[in-house]
Design brief:
The complex is a heterodimer of chains A (203) and B (217). Chain A has six helices and five strands. In chain A, the strands form two sheets. A three-stranded mixed β-sheet of chain A has the order 3-4-5, covered by helices on one side. A two-stranded antiparallel ribbon of chain A has the order 1-2. The radius of gyration of chain A is 29 Å and the shape is elongated. Helices cover 46% and strands 13% of the residues of chain B. The relative contact order of chain B is 0.18. Classes of the chains: A alpha+beta (203), B alpha+beta (217). Strand 5 of chain A pairs parallel with strand 3 of chain B.
Chain lengths: 203, 217
Amino acid sequence: MNGTPHVLNRILVGILGLLMMASGTLFVLLAGVPAVAQWWRNWSSDAYEHAVYLAEQTRIPGRQESWLWVAAAAIMVILIVLMVAWLAQQGKGRANLIVADYEDETTPGEVQIGGAVAEQALKAALAGRPDLAAVTVVTYEVQGRPGLRVRVHPRQGVSPQLLAAEVSGLVEALDTVVGRRTPVLLHIAGGARARFSKAERVR
Amino acid sequence: MSNGTSTGTPGQETQPLAESSAPGAPTDPGIRTILRRETRSSRALAAGAAAVLVIAVCVYGLLESALRAIGQQPWLIDPQTAAERLVKLPEGISPLLLGATGAVLAMFGLVFLLNAVLPGRRARHLLEDPRVAVVVDDEVIAAALARSARAAANVTQEQVMVVVSQRLVVVNVRPTSGVPVHEQRVQSAVEDELRAMSPSPMPAIRVNIAVSGVIGA
């Protein structure tokens, strides 16, 4: 439900994986197959000579070094910045407002309703239930609209459909309070918190 | 792919959920996108590892080229020497070390590649609801089915094991020694619970009653 870029992640991780696999395979072949070693020596010495030639051509006037080094350093800096930007995309998308522009004839100006209203209301409504081990409610921005993610950790053996129906009722009540239907994702989660809590005995 | 284990409360069960899919939220394209995303892995972990790896390599490269630019001693290896050694590679390093390095590199590459290419489906099912979009971990479904199976078979919590995967639910029951378990009854109890739940995709049910029983349960 958050803004993690799924497709971008797949593409970039795939590219890195391909590069790593290709170089790893090349190393293994170099170590194991003499024919490949022969080919590599021819190819790479050609490439190296070409690089040296290029470096000669691109020398900074009045200095020994080629500006290719500067270019390489700049590319690496850009790469680092891009990678940090990519990291920052993971799991983003938290929002503060559940309703941003409320059109209401009786109210002059604009009404904003914070996400904490919905979060606190749902949490309070679900608190103290014996069949739930934990509840988290978070506001996210989904495709430009605010949405709620409700994650409940039921105890072992709770029927998810009953839980979903009850939470659905609560959300409908919240709709009438807020006056706006926000998209809601209910995640009924398992995991350690549910597994190590004791099973619900009486219902 | 997830497995839930047995659990149980004997007792009442399941009024079926209203199956009317009211026009509204679940058919909302935004909600559908959310649900599709929620049932797939985001690869945030692999992405983070990849980014950190690339950053580390770049920082090291920058350090070495900076050391070279200001005419200092290299820290580990000078970029030019590195390039020269790379060019005449099979020489200057033991083939065993080179092969092992390559194998490790290729293995991590394969892990990344598979991470990117495989569908990465999470062990989750969707539930129908008129208002909210509902995803359920398979573990929760397994626990609920285990409870109804346990009630139908009249055994303890430890004697029932339910494994839920995308298209199949396997219910394993070990009866108490000397007390027969009616497979049909377990099957119909689990079926009723699953029908009331109506997860999508709807899995098939297979019930296995163990041949040997448990003593003293």
